[in-house]
Structures are given as C-alpha cells and as structure tokens.
Amino acid sequence: MRTLFIGDVHGCADELDALLKECGWQPGERVVLVGDLVAKGPDSVGVLQRARELGLQAVRGNHDEHVLRWHQGHQKQGKKLKPEHQQVLKSLGPADWKYLASLLLYMRLPELNAIAVHAGLVPGVPLREQRQEHLLNLRSIAPDGKPSKRVEDGDPWASLWPGPELVLFGHDALRGLQKHPHAYGLDSGCVYGGRLTAYVLPEGRFYSVPARRAYMDLNGP
Ligand SMILES: [Mn+2]
C-alpha cells in the first residue's frame, strides 16, 4: 500500500482534489499532510472536510496551531489576529476543530523509515527532545549552530539532516521544493500560485499540480 506525503495545502481544496487524482490515489491508501492545512487560501473548511471524510492523516503546522490557540482562548494578550486567521476562526465547525486538535507535531513511520513534520528537526537532537517551536517553525541552522525560523539566517536544516530516516516536511515556500539526501521539502508554494506537491512511498516518486491562481503574495502585503 502506498503512502502519499503532501505539502502545505493552506486551504487550497481544489488543488488537493487535483493532486489526489494526479497521484491515482485510491481510498485506503494512506495520505499524510505535512501541516498548514488552513489559512491564506480560499477553502480551509473544504480541506478539513476532505481530511475527515477521506480519512487523511496530518501533522500540525504553525498556522493550524495558531488558529487552535485562538479558538481555545490561549492567544497572547494584546495580539491582533490577521484577517487570514480571522476568516478560519469564524468558518470552522466543531468537527473541524476536533480534527485540528487531534494532529500531532510529528509522525514516525518506521515501516517506511520516514518521519513527517511540518517545519523541521534540529540535526543532532533526538526526536523526542525536539522543541515544539522548531517542529513548527524551523527553517535554518546558523553558522554558529543556532536553529532559526528565518531563511536568511543560514543553511536549510534539511541539508544538515544526517538520516537515516527520510524526513518529509513543508513550511518553506521561499526555498520551494527541496531534495536533500535524507529530507524532502514539499512546500512548493501552492497558495502563492506555485504548485501542490506530493512525494509517494514506497515508489519514491514526486507528483504535483499547478495552483489555479495565486491566492496570496509570497512576499506579504
Ligand atoms: Mn508553516
């Protein structure tokens, strides 16, 4: 049976449908979304509806976490919610929140020698000791070894990941599709008008579909 790992969907429900079709996905085949299912795109509710109805698995992304914290009332005092998150907050129903709250920060798939995580893992730190802020936000390792969420601070963490597990991750649309020896970055910027990408095991093949349009500007407003 195949497992499909899919990059940041960000509410792009039409593209998710198209990608499952492009992969020749059959009900019963495992799908693991690598986080950021919601926000920025046009149809977060549709993505969560598909995830529940089709039995898709997922790990938690920073945007998923962010809207969950607001929904649960744990937001930081004085912080203002961005429109793209406000929109998610007012449109999700109880079953959607339950699904989001059930998502883990990472998934180990020993039978595939693979790990799914939204942002990244700090090389050299055991999986169980990885910090939540890194699992959800990591992008780079600075020259002094310090983990950072910024692209410009150093090398992609995935280029330093030694394996042996293959890590499938998202969260880095700026760098786009990344193929390192033991880590593949699947965020090819669908919501910014790029592509939605899947990596499929055990066949070891990438599939992707184009975004219908750019729903947001990658460089921000
Ligand atoms: Mn993210």
Record the SSE blueprint.
Blueprint: E1 3-6, H1 13-22, E2 30-33, H2 44-54, E3 57-58, H3 62-71, H4 83-91, H5 94-102, E4 106-109, E5 114-117, H6 132-137, E6 140-141, E7 147-148, E8 155-156, H7 157-160, E9 166-169, E10 178-180, E11 183-185, E12 195-201, E13 205-210
Helix pairs in contact: 2-5, 3-4
The structure holds manganese (II) ion.
Descriptive account of the structure:
It contains seven helices and 13 strands. The chain is α/β, with parallel strands linked by helices and 221 residues long. The chain has a single domain (3-210), classed as Metallo-dependent phosphatases (Purple Acid Phosphatase, chain A, domain 2), CATH 3.60.21. The model has no long low-confidence stretch (mean pLDDT 96). Residues 36, 61-63, 118, 171 line the site of manganese (II) ion. Manganese (II) ion binds next to α3.
- What is the number of strand segments? 13
**Outline type:** globular
- Strand order across the biggest sheet? 3-2-1-12-13
The tally of helices reads 7
Protein structure class? alpha/beta
Please name the fourth-level CATH homologous superfamily: Metallo-dependent phosphatases
> What about the largest sheet?
5 strands, mixed
| N/C terminus separation | 43 Å
Q: What count of structural domains?
A: 1
CATH architecture: 4-Layer Sandwich
Question: What's the order of the H and E elements?
Answer: EHEHEHHHEEHEEEHEEEEE
Can you give the helix content as a percent range?
A: 25-40%
Rg, please?
16 Å
CATH top level class name: Alpha Beta
Which ligands accompany this protein? manganese (II) ion
State the CATH topology. Purple Acid Phosphatase, chain A, domain 2
Mean pLDDT: 96
Fraction of residues in β-strands: 15-25%
Low-pLDDT regions: none
